[in-house]
Amino acid sequence: MHSEHILIPASDGNGDVPGFLVRPEGNGPWPGVVMVHEVFGIEENMIHQAEHLASRGYLVLMPDLYSRGGMRKCLRATFRALNNGQGQAFRDVEAAKKLLAGRKDCTKKIGVIGFCMGGGFALQLAQRGYEAAAVNYGIMPKDLDAVLEGACPIVGSYGAKDKTLKGAAARMEIALTHRGIAHDIKEYPEANHAFMNPGPAGPKIMRPLMQKVAGFRPRPDDAADAWSRIDSFFAKHLR
C-alpha cells in the first residue's frame, strides 16, 4: 500500500481540504471509498481502518473535517452539519468524492464508510450518489425515513451495550426492510461503542475514562466479523 497526505480542492472554492489517501498495491483501477473519521479526527485508529480497507483493494480517501480552524471550533460546526444534514462538512466530503471520481486509478464506483460520528455521516450520505454505505455505530438522524429515501445499499454494525444507540440496529433493520433497500445490519451482544477500533478510543489522556467509565474498548473478534461483512458487502456492490 501507499499512503500520503493530499489536498482536496474544495467544491465551493473555500480553500483546499487536507486528506489522507491510501492506494492498494498494483496499478488499479480500484473502486473508491470515502472514509469519514470518528469524533476524534484522523488519528491512529482511523489511519489503521483506512489502510485495512485499502488492503482489500479499495482506493480510500479520508478528508479532515477539522481542518478549518482547529478541532474545537470545527467539532461544533461538524456536529451542527450532521444534525442539519447540510453544511461545510458535507461539502468537504463531496469534494473528496469528486476527487476520487476524477482519478484515473478509480473505477468511478464509490462507496462511503464511517465510524462513530463518521458513521452518522455515512448514513446520511447513502442517498447522495454512492454505490454502498458502511455505517459503523453511526449517530442516528432525527428523521430516519427521510434519510433513507433513495438510499444505496447499507451495511451497518452496532454494539448492544452502546447506550448512545440503544435500539438503533432494530430501527435500521425495520426501516431498510420496509423500503426494500439491500442491507446487512448486525448488532453484537457484548460490544459497546467504538468496538471496531484496533486500539483504545480517544486521546491518550482520555483513554482510561473511555474504557473504564464509558466501556469503549476494542473487541477484535467482533471487529473481524464486522469487517468480513463489510468486505463481502462492498465486493458485491462496488466491484
Features:
single chain, 239 residues, eight-stranded mixed β-sheet, 8 helices, globular
What would you say this structure looks like, in words?
By secondary structure, the protein is of the alpha/beta class. The chain has one domain: Alpha/Beta hydrolase fold, catalytic domain (Rossmann fold, 3-Layer(aba) Sandwich), CATH 3.40.50. The protein has eight helices and eight strands; from the N terminus they run E-E-E-H-E-H-H-E-H-E-H-E-H-E-H-H. The chain has helices spanning 44-55, 71-84, 88-101, 117-125, 144-147, 168-179, 207-212, 220-238, and strands at residues 2-8, 17-23, 30-36, 59-63, 106-115, 133-136, 154-159, 183-188. The chain has an eight-stranded mixed β-sheet with strand order 1-2-4-3-5-6-7-8, sandwiched between helices. A hairpin with an 8-residue loop joins strand 1 (2-8) and strand 2 (17-23). The longest helix is centred in the last third of the chain and has 19 residues, at 220-238. The protein is globular. Pfam families: DLH. GO terms for molecular function: hydrolase activity. Residues 18-237 form the Dienelactone hydrolase domain. InterPro entries: AB_hydrolase_fold, Dienelactn_hydro, Dienelactone_hydrolase-like.
Q: From the 3D coordinates, which CATH architecture would you assign?
A: 3-Layer(aba) Sandwich
- Which runs of at least 5 residues are low in confidence (pLDDT < 50)? none
CATH class: Alpha Beta
Largest sheet: 8 strands, mixed
Number of strands: 8
What strand line-up does the widest sheet have? Answer: 1-2-4-3-5-6-7-8
* CATH homology-level superfamily: Alpha/Beta hydrolase fold, catalytic domain
* Principal-axes shape call: globular
* Quaternary class: single chain
Structural class by secondary-structure content: alpha/beta
Write down the domain tally.
1
Q: What is the string of SSEs from the N terminus onward?
A: EEEHEHHEHEHEHEHH
Average of pLDDT:
91
Q: Which range best describes the helical content: under 10%, 10-25%, 25-40%, 40-55%, 55-70% or over 70%?
A: 25-40%
Rg, Cα atoms, Å: 16 Å
Distance between the termini: 19 Å
How many DSSP helices? Answer: 8
Percentage of β-strand residues: 15-25%
What fold name goes in the CATH topology slot?
Rossmann fold
GO molecular function, one term: hydrolase activity
InterPro entries: AB_hydrolase_fold, Dienelactn_hydro, Dienelactone_hydrolase-like
Protein name: Carboxymethylenebutenolidase
Domain Dienelactone hydrolase: 18-237
